[in-house]
Amino acid sequence: MVLTTSVVATVVSITASFCSDILKHRYGFICLGFTVSMIGYALLLNSKHVSVAVRYFALFLVTSGGYITQPTTLIWINNNMGGHYKRSVSSAMMVGLGNAGGIVASNVFITSQGPLYPTGYGTSLGLFAMTVIVSTVLVLGMRAENHKRDRGERDHRLAEPDADNLGDDHPSFRFTY
């Protein structure tokens, strides 16, 4: 029986989604997905020095990591947006910006560099590493904001005229990780 990367990635994605929901935690799964993909890209960058089987395995890692990360980031942004308008706009922006990856890919996977594609794999690896760093900074910022709300530093917002419609600005709203 031949397994395709999409079948394996789908099973991994569904499993990660269930675990993420049970644990009520997204950041760790996002980092896990990016790490899995980064290992795959690192293997592909060293294609000259690894067997065909290892390169094939690397494709499973890259695809599975992406299938873990994409839905989890979409849910994470929805968890941290208050109000249905803000949630819908942020979801649309997330999907739109994610689709811009095709523009990047068409310019970094240079045909003349095939089949090794060092620029494409290196760029993908670098962007994934940058995303882990940015996600970490985001979590640290959300933690700091939650601590400020716990200490009552955002309670002054309740005195504003539109206090009943603050959404994620409401002092009782907590960001999730």
What's the overall geometry? Answer: elongated
Structural class: mainly alpha
- The value of Rg in angstroms is 20 Å
Total strands: 0
Strand content: under 5%
The biggest sheet, with number of strands, parallel, antiparallel or mixed sense and barrel status, is: none
Extract low-pLDDT stretches: none
Order of SSEs, N→C? HHHHHH
Query: How many domains in all?
Result: 1
- The level of helicity is 55-70%
Average per-residue pLDDT, rounded, comes to 93
| Continuous helix count | 6
Q: How many angstroms does the end-to-end distance come to?
A: 39 Å
Record the SSE blueprint.
Blueprint (H helix, E strand, L loop, with lengths): L4 H19 L3 H19 L6 H28 L4 H16 L1 H8 L9 H33 L27
What does this structure look like?
This protein has 177 residues and is mainly alpha-helical. It has one domain. Helix content is 69%, strand content 0%. The protein contains six helices and no strands. It has helices at 5-23, 27-45, 52-79, 84-99, 101-108, 118-150. The longest helix is centred in the C-terminal third of the chain and has 33 residues, at 118-150. It is elongated and about 65 Å long. The mean pLDDT is 93.
